[in-house]
């Protein structure tokens, strides 16, 4: 042991430990990738088995170190290549590593996962171990010959190999966990193994390829991956400081966007054009894809996720827009208000909105008036639910669920009524407000028909759709006027009227006018369009 008294021996030992540790990394990478094929409880066993076999194999090679010199003697010679035993071993091992790495790369790129079946768990384990042993032989041969080339003292070499293997056993779990947790790291490690396998094949064929190039390329790839992992970590830290709701919203939007980008199926499309009420007749064209997520669905998901942060002031009907009943008015005035409002639920108050008595369905209130009941006692049966304007939207949803009339009154810190919320108001926040007669598009253009409002002018039909159904001297203004003038009566819903090359399907009508019509051009006259 006097050899360890020499400082140069210690320097050589540390250099050799570092070199052997670096040369063992490719072995660890291969063990990590192969062990993923096994169940979790067998992976550590495979890792320890692989590293211990590598250590024993290197011990065996060191014991027969004198015979390793003979491995470099040519045994196959021709005019193209000269092969020694070492070169044949490197060629076989490099080819095995190349094809195995290509197979693993293909599996990861195409997302093919391994499934361990109960019937072949043991055989699968030994199949993996056999592959590890084959690669251990190749890596150990290269490692031992490198060590012998650097140091001539067998004690120092054995010490360096043993210490480096022990180091790799301790750090292998952390290294393997990192590889398994990072998909990009797995691809990088497989790429490095691919480079090493190609280098082994080139070396076996007798071509001189400086290993410095290989180490520099591996080091640069690791540097790029480290920078990428730092960037990802900073993004994760930044997102962790965001509110949970915002993080979920961004994640859902990202998933939806990926879904939209990855759809390659042929979809069935139909164009819908909306003609607005404006004089310039703007068109809003939408392509509907039946097999993809629609923009409206994305908006609904976004609105649902954001509803918890939506202010109650943006949802409620403000007090200046609330239609309410003053209980001090006479029955005639109350009845007039009831008949002139479109609201089904009305607050009943004493002289002012802040003195609310109850919230009553208008048809019940109208029945109470017609039967000459005491309105005050009747309204007292429907007490209002009043909550502060600081209540969250989620809590309001729960309260609306148990509210008898699905109406909640909102007040401020002073107890003054600020507004009113119905379940439809929250529904409108999620879905969007439905069109009323003022916002309804005048024309909806489909592939084979047009849906128009009864109030659209015949002149607009001519300009926009090239539909001319009347003579110039006709005094009808709208499509509703034309149909009433021609057939002398209000058509029922579902009735079909014919004129010239067009059929008019009545979608909606009342006692006084036609509201909505579908115009269909007869097929036999399609060439006239």
TrEMBL record:
Segments forming a coiled coil: none
Major location (coarse): membrane
GO molecular function: flavin adenine dinucleotide binding
InterPro entries found in the cross-reference section: CBS_dom_sf, FAD-bd_PCMH-like_sf, FAD-bd_PCMH_sub2, Integral_membrane_TerC, Transptr-assoc_dom
Gene Ontology cellular component terms for the protein in this record: plasma membrane
Membrane topology, as annotated: Multi-pass membrane protein
Presence of the UniProt keyword Membrane in the record: yes
Keywords (A to Z) from UniProt: CBS domain, Cell membrane, Membrane, Repeat, Transmembrane, Transmembrane helix
Name of the featured protein: UPF0053 inner membrane protein YoaE
Native organism: Buchnera aphidicola
């Amino acid at each position: 042991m006097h050899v360890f008294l020499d400082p140069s021996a210690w320097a050589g030992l540390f250099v050799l430990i570092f070199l052997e540790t670096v040369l063992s990394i490719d072995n660890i990478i291969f063990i990590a990738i192969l062990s993923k094929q096994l169940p979790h409880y067998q992976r550590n066993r495979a890792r320890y088995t692989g590293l211990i076999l590598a250590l024993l194999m290197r011990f065996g090679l060191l014991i027969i170190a004198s015979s390793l010199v003979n491995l470099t003697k040519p045994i196959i010679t021709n005019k193209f290549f000269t092969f020694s035993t070492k070169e044949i071993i490197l060629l076989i091992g490099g080819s095995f590593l190349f094809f195995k790495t290509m197979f693993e790369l293909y599996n990861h790129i195409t997302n093919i996962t391994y499934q361990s079946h109960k019937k072949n768990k043991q055989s699968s384990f030994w199949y993996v171990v056999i592959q590890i042993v084959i690669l251990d032989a190749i890596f150990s041969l290269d490692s031992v010959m490198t060590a012998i080339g650097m140091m001539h003292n067998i004690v120092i070499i054995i010490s360096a190999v043993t210490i480096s293997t022990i180091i790799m056993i301790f750090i292998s779990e952390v290294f393997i966990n990192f590889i398994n947790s990072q998909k990009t790291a797995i691809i990088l490690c497989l790429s490095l193994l691919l480079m090493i396998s190609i280098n082994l094949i080139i070396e076996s064929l007798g071509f001189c390829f400086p290993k410095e190039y290989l180490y520099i390329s591996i080091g640069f790839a690791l540097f790029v991956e480290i920078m990428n992992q730092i960037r990802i970590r900073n993004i994760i830290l930044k997102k962790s400081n965001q509110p949970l709701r915002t993080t979920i919203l961004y994640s859902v939007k990202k998933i939806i966007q990926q879904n939209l980008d990855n759809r390659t199926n042929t979809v069935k499309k139909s164009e819908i054009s909306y003609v607005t009420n404006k004089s310039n007749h703007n068109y809003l064209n939408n392509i509907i894809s039946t097999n993809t997520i629609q923009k409206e669905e994305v908006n609904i998901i976004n609105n649902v996720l954001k509803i918890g942060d939506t202010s109650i002031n943006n949802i409620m009907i403000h007090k200046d827009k609330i239609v309410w009943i003053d209980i001090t008015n006479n029955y005639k005035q109350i009845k007039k208000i009831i008949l002139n409002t479109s609201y089904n639920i009305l607050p009943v108050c004493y002289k002012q909105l802040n003195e609310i008595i109850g919230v009553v369905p208008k048809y019940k209130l109208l029945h109470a008036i017609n039967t000459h009941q005491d309105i005050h006692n009747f309204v007292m049966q429907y007490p209002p639910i009043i909550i502060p304007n600081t209540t969250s939207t989620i809590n309001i949803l729960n309260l609306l669920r148990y509210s008898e009339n699905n109406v909640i009154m909102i007040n401020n810190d002073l107890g003054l009524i600020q507004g009113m919320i119905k379940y439809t108001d929250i529904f409108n926040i999620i879905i969007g407000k439905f069109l009323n007669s003022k916002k309804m598009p005048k024309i909806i253009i489909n592939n084979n028909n047009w849906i128009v409002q009864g109030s659209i002018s015949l002149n607009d039909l001519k300009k926009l759709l090239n539909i001319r159904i009347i003579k110039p001297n006709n005094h009808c203004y709208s499509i509703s006027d034309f149909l009433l003038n021609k057939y002398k009566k209000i058509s029922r819903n579902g009735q079909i009227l014919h004129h010239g090359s067009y059929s008019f399907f009545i979608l909606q009508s009342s006692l006084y006018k036609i509201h909505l019509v579908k115009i269909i051009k007869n097929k036999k006259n399609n060439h006239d369009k």
